[in-house]
Amino acid sequence: MARPSRKRRQSASSGPLDSGLGVLMLAAFPLLMLLFQGRPETTFTGLLMLVIFALAVWLIHRGTKIARAFEAAETAKAPRLPRKMLGSALLGLLVVILAGHHFVSLPVPLGLGVLGFGLGVAAFGRDPLTSKQAAVEEDMPHLRTQETLDRIDAAIGLAVADVAALNDAELSRRAEALRSGVMGLMQAISQDPLAARRLRKPVARFLELLSKENARLIEAWGTKDRMKARRRYLARLTSLGEAFEERLRKAGTEQGRDAYDVEADLLWNRMVDKNAA
User: What digits encode the pLDDT tens for the residues 179-204?
Assistant: First the structure.
């Protein structure tokens, strides 16, 4: 079983491009004839064209190997040097030199050289020009953003659970509405991972203030200031929600979104919160 697989690998490595290079090597034989025509300038021209031809073949061969490795890899950087295209350009230069001996005007050899370059690119293909990334790596920023949103939701959920333990329906409803509103706004604004990073400090500040207000409410719940603490807590929830919404609105415009688009998202989430409440 090992021998057939080795043959398959060999056949895969020697594809039509290698056979094309083999055919291209046959074009070197007419160039060799220039070395035996006796005149020094002809011999020098023949040597120069053979060197250019050998360099072109080597560049195309190396570029083909690199292109195959690039296609086989899930993630790869594009080669800095487009070897196949440079090799094709050298073939076009050879055509210009050869045609220059048969035409008086320069445009015709140049046109034939461009044609030779184009045929080389068509025969051997182009080099990879852009790097290739795996889909998992492309999705990583969005995955990290979702993980951050989940942690924020869990932190607010703990605060809501502390309020729910007081067995006050109005407080529980308002705290849950704040939670759903904040998370809805975060989902709307955090489509761009860069925007999510800008919101780290405002979110941390929001969670800190919410934790302090919860601690004050729970501390005063068993005292005579219970109703006063309750009213204060409800007012602070409203203030926290409005301040956080304003900060998210600024973050949305800072990341380049249209102001009307941001307002539409905020209005939509506010309507959802009111319906849920």
Answer: 887 887 777 666 666 666 667 777 88
Residues 84 and 193 in one domain: no
Distances (CA, A) of 65 to 53, 86, 127, 139: 19, 15, 10, 30
Residues 87 and 171 in one domain: no
Measured between alpha carbons, how far apart are the two ends of the chain, in Å? 68
* pLDDT, tens only, 204-219: 888 888 889 989 998 8
Q: Is 20 left (phi over 0), alpha (psi -120 to 50) or beta?
A: alpha
Q: What residue numbers bound the domain in which 175 lies?
A: 135-276
Torsion of CA 130, 20, 14, 11, to 10 degrees: 120
Q: Final residue of a domain: which of 92, 124, 156?
A: 124
- Nearest one of 238, 262, 102, 259 to 189, comparing CA atoms: 262
Q: Which of 79, 105, 124 is the last residue of a domain?
A: 124
| SS3 assignment, position 1 | coil
